[in-house]
Design goal:
It contains six helices and six strands; from the N terminus they run ααββαβαβββαα. It is α+β, with helices and mostly antiparallel strands and about 260 residues long. It has three domains: about 80 residues; about 40 residues, no CATH class; about 110 residues, 3-Layer(aba) Sandwich (Rossmann fold), CATH 3.40.50. The protein has a two-stranded antiparallel ribbon. The chain has a two-stranded parallel ribbon with strand order 3-4. A hairpin with a 2-residue loop joins strand 5 and strand 6.
């Protein structure tokens, strides 16, 4: 509050001083012009000079404001840098969650985590799994998504982007990894809906997950910047080429994960 008052007084004082200086030049110059000591052209020049100087002086107020803001921000930064962490430095890799409850500040009444207790032993790998959107956005379509969808997950952004594209009823669709951020169940549901909605449209699908291209009329396989194979899914599998190798690799990865 004190800083704001100082900035206000400083800015107002500079603006008042620049305005008074112009008024003084005009009055004094007009008096000299009447007496014949100064020509009208000289008076005009002095007025223009005074306006230029006055605007430059007024700019000092904004410079002072920016400087004060930078000083306040830098103090906060140095305070954070000087803080000593309460975490021990000689950690052995053990992590323990004991009855953890969590809610986002924007929705304090909705708990995302409810009494989570979990212990990770040093060197172990622990996975957290669950259905897509578990614990998120109970308000459904009334959810506030934030500026540029900042409060949306990657999968939610993809779903909304696909829905917006289809609502435009385009004749041509370009889908670049359109379902890459979705889990298997959500991808199946979205892909099934898209297959029916894409009928009658020209669609170019770019994907690494080959499950999304099985229904394509033509699959073009690119390797080293060139199309090395093209055909339907079944035709490419029968060729036992690059596409078949990609399918086998993904199937092998899926089996390994299971």
């Amino acid at each position: 509050m004190v800083i704001q008052k100082v900035v206000g007084l400083f800015s107002g004082g500079l603006n008042a001083a620049s305005t008074l200086s112009v008024i003084a030049v005009v009055i004094y110059g007009a008096n000299l012009t009447i007496k014949g000591s100064m020509s009208a052209g000289d008076l005009t020049s002095f007025i223009l000079y005074s306006l230029t100087v006055g605007s430059a002086v007024s700019g000092l107020s904004s410079l002072y404001t920016v400087t004060m803001k930078a000083a306040g921000a830098s103090r906060r930064v140095f305070q954070l840098l000087d803080r000593v962490s309460s975490m021990p430095n000689d950690q052995d890799g053990e992590v323990e969650l004991d009855d953890v409850w969590f809610a986002y500040p924007s929705r304090p009444s909705h708990m995302i985590l409810k009494g989570i207790t979990l212990k990770l032993q040093p060197g172990s790998k622990v996975a957290l799994v669950g259905p897509s959107g578990g614990g998120k956005f109970p308000d459904n379509y009334k959810t506030f998504v934030g500026e540029r969808g900042v409060r949306l997950s990657g999968g939610q952004k993809q779903r909304i982007a696909i829905a917006r594209a289809l609502l435009m009823d385009p004749k041509i669709l370009l889908l670049d990894e359109a379902t890459s951020a979705l889990d298997a169940e959500s991808e199946y549901l979205v892909q099934d809906a898209m297959d029916s909605l894409m009928k009658g449209r020209t669609v170019l699908v770019i994907a690494h997950r080959l499950s999304t291209v099985k229904s394509a009329n033509i699959v073009a396989v690119i390797s080293d910047g060139q199309i090395v194979e093209s055909g339907t899914h079944d035709e490419l599998l029968s060729k036992d080429g690059v596409y078949t190798a990609l399918v086998r690799r993904q199937l092998q990865t899926a089996k390994t994960e299971i």
